[in-house]
Amino acid sequence: MRGEVAIVGVHQLATEAEMEDVPEERMVFDAVKGALADAGVDRDVLDTVIVAGNDVLDGRTISNTFTAEAEGGYMKDETKVAHDGLHAAVYGVMRILSGLHDVAMVVAYGNHNSISYEQWTNFALDPFRIRPTGLDGIHLAALQARRYYETTDATPEDAARVAASNLAAARDNPLALRSDDVDPGDVAGSGVAADPLRQLEVAPPGDGACAVILASADRVDEFDPDPAYVQGIGHASDALRPGDDAFHRLRAAGRAGGTALSRAGVDADAVDVAELTELFAPHQLMLAETLGLADHGPDVLDDGVAVNPSGGALAGHAYFATGLHRLAEAARQVTGRAGDRQVDDATTALAHGASGPAHQANAAAVVSSEVGP
Amino acid sequence: MREDVAVVGTGITPGEDKRKDADIPTLMREAAQDALADADLTPQDLDAVVVGNAGEFFAGTNMPDLFGLSEIHADGLPEMRIHTGGTAGASTGLAGFYHAASGLYDTVMVVTFEKLGDVNAQQALSTVYHPIFQRQYGAGAPSAAGAQAMRYIHKYGSDKTEYQAAKIAAKQRRCAMEVPYAQLKMELEPDEIMESPPLSTPVKFLDTCPATDGACAMIFQTADAAREAAGQPAWVTGVGAITDGVNQPHRDWADPEACVKAGRKAYEMAGVEDPVRDFDVLELYDAFSFQEIIWHEALGFADRGEGGSLIDEGMTTPDGEIPTCPSGGVLCHNPIGATALIRQAEAARQVMGTADHQIPDVDRSLGHGWGGVIQFFTAMIFETTPQGEPP
């Protein structure tokens, strides 16, 4: 699939704690119109539209009934993936690879209205055996982090460094929800979220949206931006097994990334920039290991691949938009459009998205500025 | 198309209004096991899985695909969930098709389900309406269907339409007598349907689909693998899906432009020029009997305003020229998130020769779906040979 599909337009709304008086339709519309403007085209050029949204967040069932027109989907082959936006992008790539579509609009959004991340994730748990315990995504992540610290050399200090680093990086990202100038000591002292996670180690939820236009490589000249070629995609989901010895290994994330890298024909060490969905600081270290970016997660803090120069999810997540934020960042990095957060000589980037409690459902994409290997 | 794709196995669980013995993962497992057995495959053969259902509010669980992952042998596999309301089953089927047609996955299973026995389905469905402008008086799906039927009757001014709809309902219900998995099996005359209580005028109780606990799974394979299948594969030769907008003031439910376009896309791909001549059997998503009249017109089987003549002339019964819903259709079995996949699965079974109510000599079939606020339309065409090959 190398060299066959490219990202030819991107637009991301700045993530905000609360977009007051902005309905979901408006967020989706602004993201899609922005991506079309970035690409320099009209929606006429679209063959298919894929949205990623969640009914529970929206408080309305069949959410794409009311976002379809805002997505640019009117009288188009439009559908909805009920997972993270990067899953929707993976599906969009498959539609183009099939030969039946040339240009796909992928849009993802999250508007948390009156539900908390804890409630949203608790509602996803087995209603008979797990949900009644009150566990939620934050507590499950805490269990993963605890297991990780107990079975590897990684320490809470390493995770605190991740949080400090990502929050600092976010100062160069005008789209981030938050940024901060903190040191690891401040992170450690920020209070307990769910032991061993500290408050500043938990990604804050916000309202956000992002749109990415994918095109068949033979059409890239019709679009303004330099193309970011999608060289490999992968996705995988794990069942929830909180008692598992390997609960911290994030196996499905590793498979998603491994498949993407393998299809791209590159090893992890070819990755210049990794934009990962680290909803919790220790998870950036776990992801680095499972994706093969480092044998020892904390090593990525010191050298090698640049991880989350955007600030990542710790700078603010917007539910299902988060993975598409990562893909948009990856595309910007390899085409030199990442502004103040640009990593020098970035030609190959890995984007990762996750949804579901405990990073169960994962998707990944390898993008590069070059057509071939 | 990069890869020819065929359906090689299907599974449909027996429908009940409330499966007290099964939770959602169990329903998913039953359908998945049946489909694997039908395809003569094992879980180790699966390369990817796609899951669909019509809503978190029906399931009572957020991201319910993750809940049933182990049960469908998808733990660790490529997996994603599709949700487009009533046509979720078909959209999921299309996603499975695209996984295979992309060339990235050779054996793809799609699993769809709904467990409506635990919820008030219409209450959940009513949250589709705008919370400020509509929800107070949008009474679930029947009110939309009633409005659609009234629009049709007004537009084409026929006083025969209601009785034609009753005849369609009677046809559907009689067909289901041959289908062991169908939830409702009722041998009824059109007059009995006409006398049933009104639900949303002119739609009556017996014109209407049930709410079913059930699941359906279907397995796609790319050509090399499909050609090794023991039975007759159902090759996918045409697909189409189009979305209409809820905010379009000119939108006409009696003349659904999106349905017309979705059908045409699939027909163009499959080389279908004369639907009446070219199809041997249809599985249309008739959630309400009146809809069969409208879908037949939109899909090119009758002229505008003439759709009701098909039932009058006996064209759509199992021994007619274009048998429609020999499975009994949605009127007799409706696990919402699975229902549109069941249309595809039944259409595939007709080509495979494995349908409970098999129509003789089927070379080409159509599975149709709709969802959302009568706005998402899907079509999938199956044939005994791949695209471009003679039957």
Explained architecture:
The complex is a heterodimer of chains A (373) and B (391). Chain A is an alpha/beta fold. Chain A contains eleven helices and twelve strands. In chain A, the strands form two sheets. Chain A has a ten-stranded mixed beta sheet with strand order 3-2-4-7-1-8-12-11-9-10. Chain A is globular, with a radius of gyration of 19 Å. Chain A starts with a strand and ends in a 5-residue tail after the last strand. Chain B has 391 residues and is an alpha/beta fold. Helix content of chain B is 34%, strand content 18%. Chain B has 14 helices and eleven strands. In chain B, the strands form two sheets. In chain B, strands 3-2-4-7-1-8-11-10-9 form a nine-stranded mixed beta sheet. In chain B, strands 5-6 form a two-stranded antiparallel sheet. In chain B, strand 10 and strand 11 form a beta hairpin. The model of chain B has no long low-confidence stretch (mean pLDDT 95). At the A-B interface, helix 3, strand 3, helix 4, strand 8 and helix 9 of A face helix 3, strand 3, helix 4, strand 8 and helix 10 of B.
List keywords for this structure.
A: alpha/beta; ten-stranded mixed sheet; two-stranded antiparallel sheet; 11 helices; 19% strand; globular; B: alpha/beta; nine-stranded mixed sheet; 14 helices; 34% helix; 18% strand
